[in-house]
Amino acid sequence: xxxxxxxxxxxxxxxxxxxxxxxxxxxxKVYSLLYGVANLKNKxxxxxxxxxxxxSRKDFVIGIVFEITSSNWIFDIxxxxxxxxxxxxxxxxxxxxxxxxxxxxxxxxxxxIKDVDATMKIELTLREKGxxxxxxxxxxxxxxxxxxxxxxxxxxxxxxxKKETGCEIFVGQNGRIWIxxxxxxxxxxxxxxDIIIRExxxxxxxxxxxxxxxxxxxxxxxxxxxxxxxxxxxxxxxxKMTSVNEKDSERVEKINDTGRMVDQLLDxxxx
Amino acid sequence: MKTENSNYVSINGQKFEIKNxxxxxxxxxxxEKFIDENGLRLDGRAVDEIRPMTIExxxxxxxxxxxxxxxxxxxILAAVYGPRELHPRRMQxxxxxxxxxxxxMAAFSVEERARPGPSRRSIEISKxxxxxxxPVIMTKYYPSAVIxxxxxxxxxxxxxxxxxxNAASIALADAGIPMKGLISACAVGKVDGQLVxxxxxxxxxxxxxxxxxxxxxxxxxxxxxxxxxxTKEEFKxxxxxxxxxxxxxxxxxxxxxxxxxxxxxxxxxxxxxIAEEKPDDVQKEIExxxxxxxxxxxxxxxxxxxxxxxxxxxVIVIKTDESDIEISEDEFTEFNExxxxxxxxxxxxxxxxxxxxx
Lengths: 271, 358
What we know:
The complex is a heterodimer of chains A (271) and B (358).
Chain A: E1 3-6, E2 11-13, E3 23-26, E4 29-32, E5 36-39, E6 45-48, E7 60-68, E8 72-76, E9 82-86, H1 99-102, E10 108-116, E11 122-125, E12 132-134, E13 138-141, H2 147-151, H3 156-165, E14 168-171, E15 176-180, H4 183-198, H5 205-219, H6 224-246, H7 249-257, H8 262-270
Parallel strand pairs in A: 9-11
Antiparallel strand pairs in A: 1-5, 2-4, 3-4, 5-6, 7-8, 7-10, 8-9, 10-11, 10-12, 13-15, 14-15
Chain B: E1 8-11, E2 14-17, E3 53-57, E4 65-71, E5 74-85, E6 98-105, H1 120-132, E7 145-155, H2 160-174, E8 184-191, E9 194-197, H3 201-206, E10 209-215, E11 221-224, E12 227-228, H4 232-258, H5 264-276, H6 279-311, H7 315-319, H8 321-335, H9 338-357
Helix pairs in contact in B: 8-9
């Protein structure tokens, strides 16, 4: 068997060359550092069952602003270390006095980690495709060690969830998941994600979740068509909003005044 | 004070019996014999036998790692939180995490109600227990963070510090903290002039010596205390016995960890999937998902840029993304100072913008 549950300090190999992530070498032998599963492919690495999210370069994360300084937004990224988003990492030039208009305390964003230094100072960026402020939808939190299960093999789980619920999903490496769609669909989806986390160690997970969602769907089949319409409507308004968000903040305010945004805002408030 | 006649003190040549607060002689419950003619102890164990131990893992939902351990009549609840941010900041160590360990006896854990709050004894035990984990916890992985360990004694029956260490060791593993190995702890004592492993309440109270130790899997001793008197030879022998006891406990700990999941096969099956998600793969998958998102987003961006060209603002800032970042990175390594970086970058984008407008 090439996979096994290991405990810290368990001897894994006598070949130093095979030492991979989650292992250490002592006196020419490889031992496990973690409580998890040893993967004996190529090099031996140990995948932990649990553990806090430790940021690393190029990770996509979902952060929540909790402090604003004269040139940085400070994000809680669900790890022991805070993330800094410097104004220069925002896609637009921002006057320091306008920082609160772009991200206020409590606002969320999809971010990417630009750099992590030895003292664990985390630099974030928004200057990449797909990175943006989050408006509407819901934010779920799962243990970061379970993120691969939510994504599934080659993204199978996420695409299945997307297909079955018609919700938008973004899974951050830090275990935060943003979902957006109709309320009923989001309820269903968060329930499905709960099951994933609870039963992540039992095999055939994707199939079971798929089954779970389909059973639910049959109940709702009648109102399905209506839902679809509303979905597209919502999407449109959401898209408009994000595009506006990219432009200067004056316009955001204008659009915010229009009644179209009320639904979105209500959504946000609910969460 | 654990010598044979320590229940008497002599003041001015007169002997007084030590009594407890109710006035009973503290030796009132002292058994006549600790080891019977068959070599068995009061609770029926052999001299080198430990009390039965049961371990339950992950009992607290809000802790990052937890463990409930019963060892004889000892009941210990251990919880691990972290690595997490450490406040106040001045306590942070910039190059490694600190470990905080709190050993606490619940007021109801002993027959006579214990005064709640830290006592001289519990502060000392917390300190030595924390140090017992120093050789195994990889604190270097989490600079300036803190790992908090809480060990609560719910019911005490001698050897609570060793029981707490055994529980904390499991809780740390459960929390996913990188460790070079597990720590196991166990005590050896002397009763009726004979060395016995893992003292129980009576043996602890009326015995002649108590020697708790904690050790790593390699037999490296990370905690050793002694109460009472042992001869040099007895000490050596006691240490060997304690090491044997720790080895037995280590096996129990390992087994408990491996058994956490109801059926091993199920886990191994699911591991196939987990294990194949290497960090790189996960990244790629996320990027895949991103791309889907981007297709929606991208149109907006394009529009955005066009809009900007019309208005003649900010185009450069978007387009010079890459070079900007590179420059700033170079400067960052040179000066390694934020303020320099900030001003330089701001100036840079300013000049570029002006240039574009012209």
